[in-house]
Design a protein that fits this description.
The complex is a heterodimer of chains A (259) and B (434).
Chain A lengths: L1 H6 L7 E4 L4 H11 L1 H19 L10 H4 E2 L2 E2 L3 H8 L3 E4 L5 H10 L4 E3 L7 H4 L6 E5 L7 E2 L2 H7 L5 E6 L9 E6 L9 H25 L15 E2 L4 H13 L9 E2 L1
Parallel strand pairs in A: 1-4, 5-6, 7-10
Antiparallel strand pairs in A: 2-3, 6-8, 8-9, 9-11
Chain B lengths: L10 H25 L4 H17 L14 H14 L10 E3 L3 E2 L4 H18 L2 H17 L23 H18 L2 H17 L21 H14 L2 H15 L18 E2 H17 L3 H21 L5 E2 L10 E2 H18 L2 H16 L16 E2 L9 E3 H23 L10
Antiparallel strand pairs in B: 1-2, 1-7, 3-4, 5-6
The chains are: A alpha/beta (259), B mainly alpha (434).
């Protein structure tokens, strides 16, 4: 996301990253999940990094073209920050006083939040243009978690929504919604997620440009009822969503825009 | 749950009796351990394992989205527990206590375990479950009072004429009798069911509730919707609308206690918190009675309450063992039976509405419950469902309870039926209710 913004001429004033493999996080997860799940979690976090360091393909392949530069490819946010010359800070919690101090120092006009947690009002109020989030489904139909999978099972077009965050869960005003083109080409649920993330990065750039030019404005959601909230999906239903995805193999669609 | 009533006692007498009863219970349980010191090992092991688990492994829902134990294995273990719990007289024990061992036979649970036994037999071709169900039904027939009622409490060997009739227990037993008749077509069972149904209709108050003689603590309770469900079943079985009308009268009375936010008043158990078990009883009774009597408003009312609990489960990662009014504050323990009952409610709501979020929540809560079922430990423990998790929680502490096994078995049987039919279908017709 930082590269996309920088390429459009909006070099970030700073980037705040959540450290995932620190002692505190691991201890908390050990308590919540038990040893077996923590080992699995650590493996999932560590193996892509090891693969990346060995030069193997890792992460999201659809982001690779964006990460290319004249001397190679950016392999981490640290390299992106060094390449474009903006500060990078690590934190354990986006809502901590330490994080807020960084954000106050950088005084951004706009925050783009790529995480999945809830932000405190103090953070939401910091930038004048608001906090943008890419939600991996069309709003207001599908809010919450496991949203691409729920979209598939509920016959809602798969897509993304770029919206301004508020105190609720995916209830903020919508800037733009986009259906994902070529869903039929997806080979698996993880492939679908990777495509959605890359699509979200690309479209966030368009939305930020629109905000700067004043051609895009935020519209309150027509329905913020809690009934539209979805939750983490059980693996049995995920398998059904994957079947639906595979059954949908068909000619590429163009992808519609939802304003 | 244990529900017995003595209409002749005043409120003060009731309180004194309850306190004395609790002291006597504690002493009996402690004495049980002294008489059978070999139980100290399993007791200590369970206390330590629950303590370790809640301290170091506070699992939450993201961990319960994957299957680590097969539902079929757990189902077989639960049914084995129930088979072993059948006493020589033919009744099913209420519980296996880590202090005192198996309890006496419990008529109420013996009755409403019968449908579970037949469902299991049908699903797995297990003829052993049919034998247990038939023995249970025979024993229940021997307990029926001349009025048609069935007694409350554990079976202590008294003659039916010396026992106190109980509305709730008669309703729960009626469920079993209706199913036993549907399976066997024995006229003796049919007559017993009609006798019980007639007594329940006679005992019903003009407002549709059951209170006074035969009602627990002489008071009306909304969780007696389970009795309404039994009457609705009887109405279908014998094609007599008198029972259906009585069921709907109670349904209307219970529905008048539903608040807009989903909370249900009138559980009304003096001296007890609003355990999830009773909240879920209200919902199960209203839902099943509503389905049988084609009352959409009842189904929608249950859906509202069930959705409130579903959101609590998904966001807090567990359902509390007891709730304050309006589901405001949850107790810090889990009532496993209540969890299993909510799984049944969500699964049935999925069946009625096609909203996959109900199925999703049920699948996850079932994963959690399956992981808490012991695979070893001998009879009474292996395959058992504790009253509370951790085991020292206030709902049926230090006990593996037969109705916990019944409801989890119901949930897993329902899960199996619904997931199999979904896999067999195109899956394309499903949509979310919202």
């Amino acid at each position: 996301m930082a590269v996309r913004m920088a390429e459009l001429g909006h070099v970030p004033t700073g980037a705040l990253a959540l450290s995932t493999l620190n002692r505190g996080t691991l201890l908390r997860k050990l308590k919540q999940w038990g040893m077996h799940e923590v080992v699995r979690y650590a493996k999932a976090k560590l193996l892509p990094q090891i693969g990346h360091q060995r030069g193997r393909a890792a992460g999201n392949p659809y982001l690779d073209p964006l990460l290319k530069h004249e001397h190679g490819s950016f392999r981490s946010l640290r390299e992106v920050a060094a390449g474009y010359g903006f500060p990078l800070a690590f934190c354990h919690d986006q809502n901590s006083s330490e994080s807020i101090a960084h954000l106050q120092e950088w005084a951004p006009d706009l925050i783009i939040f790529t995480g999945g947690n809830i932000l405190r009002q103090q953070v939401l109020d910091l930038p004048g243009l608001g906090v943008l989030n890419v939600h991996l489904a069309l709003l207001p139909q599908i809010r919450g978690m496991s949203t691409p999978e729920w979209s598939l099972l509920n016959h809602v077009p798969v897509g993304i929504t770029i919206h301004c965050m508020d105190a609720g869960i995916d209830t903020g005003p919508v800037l733009q919604g986009y259906e994902l083109p070529e869903v039929a080409r997806c080979e698996s649920l993880s492939d679908l997620r990777n495509r959605l993330i890359a699509f979200g990065v690309e479209k966030t750039g368009d939305v930020v440009e629109g905000l700067v030019r004043g051609t895009i404005s935020a519209n309150p959601q027509s329905d913020t009822a809690p009934d539209n909230q979805f939750f983490v999906m059980h693996e049995w239903l995920q398998a059904r969503a994957a079947e639906r995805l595979m059954a949908n193999h068909r000619a590429p669609t163009t992808g519609a825009v939802h304003e | 749950m244990i529900d017995s009533a003595d209409p002749r006692r005043s409120k003060g007498d009731h309180q004194a009796t309850e306190i004395i009863g609790q002291i006597a219970k504690a002493l009996t349980e402690a004495t049980g351990l002294l008489l059978a010191p070999q139980r100290a090992g399993p007791l200590l092991r369970k206390l330590v394992s629950d303590k370790l688990r809640i301290t170091f492994e506070q699992r939450h829902l993201y961990s319960y989205t994957q299957t680590t134990r097969l539902s079929e294995e757990t189902l077989n273990a639960l049914l084995r527990w129930l088979f072993h719990a059948q006493r020589p007289d033919g009744g099913i024990a209420a519980y296996y206590s880590l202090l005192t061992g198996y309890s006496e036979s419990y008529p109420e649970v013996t009755g409403y375990i019968i449908p579970t036994l037949y469902d299991f037999a049908r699903s797995t071709d297990n003829s052993g479950a049919v034998v247990v169900a038939q023995r249970s039904a025979r024993w229940l027939l021997s307990l029926q009072m001349s009025t048609g009622a069935f007694p409350g409490g554990l079976h202590t060997g008294l003659h039916p004429s010396q026992m106190q009739p109980s509305v709730f227990n008669t309703g729960q037993i009626l469920q079993g009798l209706v199913r036993a008749h549907a399976e066997t077509k024995r006229s003796q069972i049919l007559q017993a069911a009609i006798g019980a149904g007639d007594w329940l209709v006679r005992m019903q108050q003009p407002d549709g509730s059951w209170s006074g003689p035969g009602a627990y603590q002489n008071a009306p309770h909304t969780y007696y919707s389970m009795v309404a469900w039994a009457l609705a079943l009887l109405s279908e079985e014998v094609s007599d609308d008198r029972y259906g009308i009585a069921a709907e009268r109670n349904l209307d009375w219970v529905l008048s206690h539903f608040r807009p936010g989903g909370w249900i008043d009138g559980i009304n158990l003096r001296g007890h918190p609003n355990y999830l078990h009773f909240i879920a009883y209200v919902l199960q009774g209203v839902l099943e009675c509503g389905i049988l009597r084609r009352r959409n408003h009842a189904i929608q009312s249950v859906a509202k309450s069930a959705w409130t609990l579903l959101r609590k489960f998904e966001t807090n990662k567990y359902l509390a063992g007891a709730y304050d009014t309006e589901f405001k504050r949850g107790a810090h323990f889990t009532c496993l039976t209540g969890n299993a009952q909510m799984s049944c409610v969500w699964l049935r709501l999925f069946e009625m509405t096609s909203d996959l979020r109900y199925l999703n929540a049920a699948l996850k809560i079932n994963e959690m419950l399956k992981e808490l079922i012991p695979t070893g430990g001998g009879q009474g423990i292996a395959g058992g469902v504790t009253g509370s998790y951790p085991i020292w929680g206030p709902y049926q502490p230090l006990r593996y309870i037969s109705w916990g096994c019944k409801f989890l078995a119901d949930a897993l049987l329902l899960e199996g039926r619904l997931t199999q039919s979904l896999e067999a279908s195109t899956f394309g017709a499903l949509q979310c209710a919202s």
